[in-house]
Specification:
single chain; alpha/beta; Aspartate Aminotransferase, domain 1; 16% strand; globular
């Protein structure tokens, strides 16, 4: 690397104050097996800043109550903060209306909601659904179920040896029978950033609707659903530094209005008699029963936190960490990176000759290093690369070069143990 590039790199790194960010995450100062925690499993779930933790604590201590139905002070406050969080989500992804923001248990439920409401009511045996070989199981199985229910044909876009979608094959699959294209924004197994703008545009050209699985994207990039012009966008709170058990489905209002309820129960109704039920307006039509109130409030706090961080700057920093990890790993004999897309982020998946990824994960855990080992709920990806599993280190903006160094040293120890 020349001096000019080095200077630029150092300037970019200096512009992101990682130590200031790390100070907000208490768990990063814990020890595992007597050693400082090195947390590199962010694609599975991100850690929570003290601001989110405090928000949850305050809710349970000071105004824990059910929402929407109560007229007492606690209920009114909880309702106000809950609905304020919905508006924060709207602003965060630039939706047109709070009516387009549905709270679910997570990305998985959001996708299933679309499959069983939009899908069941709009697809038949004459129709086709397109997914890709890169998808998480939660963006495969619901469509297989829907295909069995409706007779619709399920097709998938293959990937190349770098883990990139083969767009020429996607274009061949599109036709007048295509009713839905559903694709991950970023691959959880490989870190590939898919060209979703192009994918959406081409799908709309044949009259198809598009759902984007954004679980891995929202922590790493700015998402503007109006700019993307997607029909549905799903993501989870726990990957966005918020609580588990809470997620979001964005849908264009006209589509959501036409879709039937996903579940029946309280809060999704206007009137109920023994003869007939009338349904509530959006977004409540899709939110039956007592919701995860603390989860929604915590998600609102997480969005507040992330909104104070320059996500573009943070993404640049994360990409520098990934580049550094790749450079250091290239010096380790027998290490094979899996997923080398030109446009990727935050995820370093690899195999090590003669060592199963589960053994890698166990040995690294002895060093206080948390990674993920397995098929990452993306078995078709593993099948494509003819491997049973990978070891996956995934980065967030609170990780450091020292974390990468610890990972590399841990991999060296794996080789020593099995030598």
């Amino acid at each position: 690397m020349n001096k000019q590039n080095t200077a630029t790199k150092l300037t970019n790194e200096a512009s992101f104050d990682v130590e200031k960010v790390r100070a907000d995450f208490p768990i990063l100062f814990e020890q595992v097996r007597g050693k400082p925690l090195v947390y590199l499993d962010n694609a599975a779930t991100a850690q929570k800043p003290k601001q989110v933790i405090k928000t949850l604590d305050t809710y349970y201590r000071e105004y824990n109550s059910n929402i929407h139905r109560g007229v007492h002070t606690l209920s009114e406050k909880a309702t106000a903060v809950y609905e304020e969080a919905r508006n924060k989500v709207k602003e965060f992804i630039n939706a047109d209306s709070i009516k387009e923001i549905i709270f679910t248990r997570g990305t998985t439920e959001s996708i299933n909601l679309v499959a069983q409401t939009f899908g069941r009511n709009n697809l038949s045996s004459n129709d086709e659904i397109i997914i890709t070989e890169l998808e998480h199981h939660s963006n495969i199985v619901p469509w297989q179920i829907l295909s069995e229910q409706t007779g619709a044909t399920l097709k998938y876009v293959p990937i190349n040896d770098a883990g990139e979608l083969i767009l020429e094959e996607y274009e061949k699959l599109l036709n007048e029978k295509t009713r839905l294209v559903t694709i991950g924004h970023i691959s959880n197994a490989l870190g590939t950033i898919n060209p979703i703008e192009t994918i959406i545009e081409k799908a709309h050209a044949v009259g198809a609707k598009v759902l984007i699985d954004g679980a891995q994207a929202v922590p790493h990039t700015r998402v503007d659903v109006n700019e993307l012009n997607c029909d549905f966008y799903a993501f989870s709170g726990h990957k966005l530094f918020g609580p588990t058990g809470i997620g979001v489905l964005y849908g264009k209002q006209a589509l959501l209005e036409a879709m039937p309820p996903y579940q029946g129960g309280g809060d999704m109704i206007k009137t109920v008699s023994m003869k007939k039920t009338t349904y509530n307006d959006l977004p409540h039509k899709f939110e039956a029963g007592t919701p995860h109130i603390a989860g929604v409030i915590g998600l609102g706090s997480a969005i507040d936190y992330v909104s104070e961080i320059d996500l573009h700057e943070a993404a640049e920093y994360e990409n520098q960490l990934l580049q550094y990890a790749n450079e250091q790993a290239a010096q380790i004999s027998g290490l094979v990176p899996v997923g080398t897309a030109k446009n990727k982020t935050s995820i370093f998946s690899f195999t090590l000759d003669g060592i199963h990824p589960h053994d890698i994960g166990t040995i690294l855990d002895d060093e206080g290093i948390a990674i993920r080992a397995g098929h990452h709920c993306a078995m078709p990806v593993m099948e494509r690369f003819k491997i049973p599993a990978t070891a996956r280190a995934s980065f967030a903006f609170y990780n450091t070069r020292e974390d990468v160094d610890a990972l590399i040293q841990g991999i060296d120890k794996c080789k020593q143990v099995f030598s």
